[in-house]
Design a protein that fits this description.
Elements lengths: L6 E5 L18 H4 L9 H6 L1 H13 L9 H12 L2 E5 L5 H5 L6 E3 L2 E8 L5 E3 H9 L14 E5 L8 H13 L2 E5 L11 H7 L3 E5 L12 E3 L3 H15 L1
Parallel strand pairs: 1-2, 1-7, 2-3, 7-8, 8-9
Antiparallel strand pairs: 4-5, 4-6
Helix pairs in contact: 4-9, 7-8
Keywords: Hydrolase, Metal-binding, NAD, Transferase, Zinc
Enzyme class: transferase
InterPro entries: DHS-like_NAD/FAD-binding_dom, NAD-dep_sirtuin_deacylases, Sirtuin, Sirtuin_cat_small_dom_sf, Ssirtuin_cat_dom
Length: 243
């Protein structure tokens, strides 16, 4: 009996734009519209400047990441995972893969989650919804209720390293997979951007689904430029029908 191929899917901000969450680096991305916004997710200014933290909490309160709904791209990956062995490695922090129906064990959140907060001092975790309730009640920069330390989103900010355990798991999946699909990611942010190379070195095929060119385009077996919410269901149907 032939074992079924393992598919690794790396997803970036592009898969969630149709859910109303803007990407960062695209032509209409957050950095293009507001270059100063990058400070809000960069560790050093966030820790140093209370005003940056206050703006960051307003961004979290007003952002779409916590209330957005999955789109056809997210749902297509649920369908794929129902037919074939799939592991989703996501740079996104919105939790939409799980909200669409993927079990936690099939999703590796490389950059953490926006649904929780963490104290930078005592490292305790809490729920983002509770922290935002404090903001709504009049605390513009809520501190940790255990030690008084600075609270941040439980995400990997610029200037922070990825969790080495999570990164090692992602690298192991990339090395073991037979097909690596990169969806909606610029493939420019390391160390995550090294995952396609690891997959290629392991003999995997590479498919890139992204509107803009990436550094890996010349190595891809297939490039898909169509909008992700249209392209991914079509791609998944091809694999599930073939299977």
């Amino acid at each position: 009996m032939t074992s079924r191929p393992l598919i690794a899917v790396l997803t970036g901000a592009g898969i969630s734009t149709d859910s109303g969450i803007p990407d960062y680096r695209g032509p209409n991305g957050l950095w293009q519209r507001d270059p100063q916004a990058q400070q809000l997710v960069t560790l050093e200014p966030y820790l140093r400047d209370p005003e940056v933290r206050r703006r960051a909490w307003q961004m979290r309160r007003d952002g779409r990441a916590l209330t957005a709904e999955p789109n056809a791209g997210h749902r297509a990956l649920v369908e794929l995972a129902g037919e074939l062995p799939v592991r989703v490695l996501t740079q996104n922090v919105d939790g939409l893969h799980q909200k669409a129906g993927l079990p936690d064990r099939k999703v590796l959140e490389l950059h953490g989650t926006a649904h929780r907060v963490q104290c930078v001092q005592c490292k305790r975790y809490g729920e983002m919804s509770q922290a935002l309730a404090r903001v709504a009640a009049g605390e513009p920069d809520p501190a940790c209720q255990h030690c008084g330390g600075v609270l941040k989103s439980a995400t990997v900010m610029f200037g922070e390293s990825l969790d080495p355990v999570v990164l090692a798991q992602a690298e192991a999946i990339a090395k073991a997979c037979d097909l690596f699909i990169a969806v909606g990611t610029s493939l420019q942010v390391y160390p995550v951007a090294a995952l396609p190379r690891i997959a290629l070195e392991g003999g995997a095929k590479l498919i890139i689904v992204n509107a803009e060119p990436t550094p890996y385009d010349e190595y891809a077996d297939e490039l898909v430029r169509e909008p992700i919410s249209q392209a991914l269901p079509t791609l998944v149907q091809r694999f599930t029908t073939a299977g």
